[in-house]
Design brief:
Shape: globular
Oligomer: single chain
Strand order of the largest sheet: 2-9-8-5
Number of helices: 5
Largest sheet: 4 strands, mixed
Number of strands: 9
Length: 268
């Protein structure tokens, strides 16, 4: 009995000494205050946007970018600075394609509020006429200032590619193609008209469960239901057959993409 008690005492003292040593090894965070874009996964660094999905009368729209701080909270509001990085390919022009980040009307939005670690910052895109025929790139980087310094370069930029046309969603990748066939803008428009859904990244990811990452369960997340995707593909095929039959009855050709590819939901 005494030996058992002595063993417990020795064990308790040993654990206490070990924990004390660990506490001494822990260093106080002193890397300074930093700011990141908030990514849930690496694909969040790219945002595809199209004015097509919104009202036809809209002349601008806002994309909200979430940022998160590194380091302790502050009792004061902290200003955020963005800067554009030119890629050399269809780069956005401030004032023409988007409202400049230092515009006075945006000043009150470019802050991390006091005692907060996360904020949403607006990027206002403009519906310029050339978007009808091409996509514009706006690569944004968090700029160091008196409040925040660069600590994590891997989460320091976001690219927005925007247009006034339909574009291929990033989630329309391998696994989505298995159920709904290869992507095409004519097919995309038909899907929107027939189902009332946008078939954009939000719909494909949050409703059907597809992702753009081929390493994430072969391209799907927890929302994915294979039986439902199979059922939906079959129903869309039936609807398309009826639609094509009506076109033929009117003396029109079956539905095709601009390059002559027949629209279908056949698997690869």
């Amino acid at each position: 009995m005494k030996n058992n008690l002595l063993y417990r005492i020795i064990l308790f003292v040993s654990i206490s000494i070990a924990l004390s040593a660990c506490e001494k090894d822990l260093e106080v965070y002193n890397a300074g205050d930093g700011l990141n874009f908030f990514y849930e996964n690496s694909s969040d660094s790219l945002i595809n946007y199209s004015f097509v999905y919104g009202p036809s009368t809209a002349i601008q729209d806002t994309v909200w970018l979430k940022v998160e701080t590194i380091g302790p909270l502050s009792s004061k509001n902290r200003h955020i600075d963005f800067e554009q990085v030119h890629t050399g390919t269809n780069d956005a022009v401030a004032g023409t394609h988007y409202i400049a980040f230092d515009e006075a009307s945006l000043k009150n939005y470019f802050i991390v509020p006091s005692d907060k670690s996360i904020a949403s910052v607006p990027v206002v895109l403009k519906r310029e006429a050339s978007l009808k025929t091409k996509s514009i790139t706006l690569l944004i980087r968090i700029k160091t200032n008196d409040y925040f310094k660069l600590i994590n370069p891997e989460r320091n930029s976001i690219k927005i590619v925007f247009t006034d046309q339909l574009h291929k969603p990033s989630c329309w990748a391998y696994h989505c193609t298995l159920h709904f066939g290869v992507y095409g803008p004519v097919k995309h428009k038909w899907l929107i008209d027939q189902t009332g859904n946008k078939w954009d990244d939000d719909y494909l990811s949050n409703i059907l469960g597809y992702t753009s990452s081929p390493t994430s369960n072969l391209g799907f997340n927890s929302k994915y239901d294979e039986a439902y995707s199979t059922f939906l593909s079959a129903k869309l095929t039936q609807k398309l057959n009826v639609y094509n039959a009506d076109r033929i009855a009117l003396g029109l050709n079956i539905l095709k993409e601009a390059d002559g590819t027949i629209v279908s939901f056949n698997n690869l």
